[in-house]
Design brief:
The protein is an alpha+beta fold. The protein has 8 helices and 20 strands. The strands form 4 sheets. It has a 6-stranded mixed beta sheet, sandwiched between helices. The protein has a 5-stranded antiparallel beta sheet with strand order 13-12-11-14-20, with helices on one face. The protein has a 5-stranded antiparallel beta sheet with strand order 15-19-16-17-18. It starts with 9 loop residues before the first strand and ends with a strand.
Length: 366
């Protein structure tokens, strides 16, 4: 581990009121206790106050009133305001903002020189290995891809040896492939670091993949706080706007010829794209309701690989005319299916009924 664990939670109680022109008034009013380990996602629509909250924690919003405590350090209260550069906080912005006249390595050295407690050489090498950037140290920023720049920006933030890492939509400027790449590095980083991370996003699949706790914000206020598993069990929650279910499983085997991995979820086997998965790995699977179809019998002549024995526990009106949303119990876990009311009536579906949920492999995201 690079950094010692933060043994106590974080206390964030902040208020900020401002006008942004054209009679646009914004008010931030939050009162939170955040765990001292793991990734906490801050989720919400644009303008909900996610970035403003991060900026207040970092000390970049000097007009904010309230209290910011991280572990034993109080950065702000009624008598104290520690300026941003004196807070032990690492910040990763949407844009990497590396110094263009310096090499990638020199950008990292700049961060090292600015901290009072630099990482040991062994820790530095481990960090470079986790983010897979050692071969790129001699490159200048204009020679790096967007994903590579962001990996260096993350490394630069970690090299400040912070007590907490703030990530403000670090994937927003990247294409789909680079997003998937960076997500895997953030997952590895979470295991490598022993400090909490606050991750701002408006993408539910990012939240489902990374977070342990979720803070849902709306118009500057905290609307919901909860464990990610709990929130994704609620079919019409703010976070599962597309009714995404979150399943926990373990990789049982990998078929290299087909680039598929078999994941055991309770008593069901689910096939997913193998990527870099290996047997024994614990994974989260995100399944959108629109990618789930229902059959009364177990189909054997079908291209759909995943057929999950389920029981209908709830039927709700869908968010579009002529649709309905089914909540399916799959052992101890939950799955959602969005189907037409015509299909519901044709199949004669009702609560308590045993059915088979069919999910395409491509509809599952690790």
């Amino acid at each position: 581990m690079v950094i010692n664990p933060v043994e106590t939670d974080m206390e964030i109680s902040l208020k900020l009121s401002r006008n942004s022109g054209a009679a646009q008034h914004f008010e931030l009013d939050v009162d939170l206790h955040i765990p001292g380990t793991g990734i906490t996602a801050i989720y919400g629509a644009s303008g909900s106050g996610k970035t403003t909250l991060l900026r207040c924690i970092a000390g970049l919003e000097t007009q904010a009133q309230g209290r910011v405590r991280i572990a034993a350090d109080t950065y702000q209260d009624s008598h104290i305001f520690v300026p941003a550069h004196q807070r032990k906080i690492g910040y990763v912005f949407q844009e990497p903002s590396l110094f263009p006249h310096l090499s990638a390595e020199q950008n990292l050295q700049y961060a090292q020189r600015r901290t009072r407690t630099p990482l040991a050489e062994k820790q530095l090498q481990e960090l470079l290995e986790v983010l897979a950037i050692s071969p790129l140290l001699s490159h200048r920023p204009d020679q790096l891809s967007g994903g590579e720049k962001q990996r260096f920006a993350i490394a630069r933030a970690v090299l400040s040896n912070p007590d907490i890492l703030l990530l403000d939509e670090p994937l927003s400027a990247l294409d789909t492939d680079r997003k998937r790449e960076i997500l895997s590095y953030i997952e590895s980083l979470q295991q490598f670091l022993a400090i909490p991370m606050l991750y701002v996003s408006h993408a539910e699949l990012e939240v489902a993949r990374l977070a342990e706790q979720v803070i849902i914000m709306d118009k500057g206020h905290v609307k919901t706080v909860g464990a990610v598993n709990t929130i994704f069990r609620q079919p019409l929650s703010d976070l599962s706007g597309d009714c995404t279910a979150l399943l926990q499983g373990q990789v049982e085997s990998v078929e290299q010829d087909y680039h598929l991995a078999k994941v055991k979820v309770d008593s069901s086997d689910i096939w997913v794209a193998s990527h870099n998965l290996s047997p024994g790995a614990t994974v989260r699977l995100c399944v959108c309701a629109r990618d789930v179809s229902i059959s009364r019998i177990q189909e054997t002549q079908s291209s759909i690989l995943n057929k999950i024995a389920s029981e209908i526990s709830q039927i709700q009106t869908g968010d579009e005319p002529g649709t309905c949303l089914l909540t399916l119990a799959c052992g101890e876990q939950r799955l959602f299916a969005k189907i037409t009311r015509k299909s519901l009536d044709t199949l004669g579906l009702a609560t308590g009924q045993k059915v088979w949920a069919q999910v395409k492999s491509v509809g599952i995201v690790q």
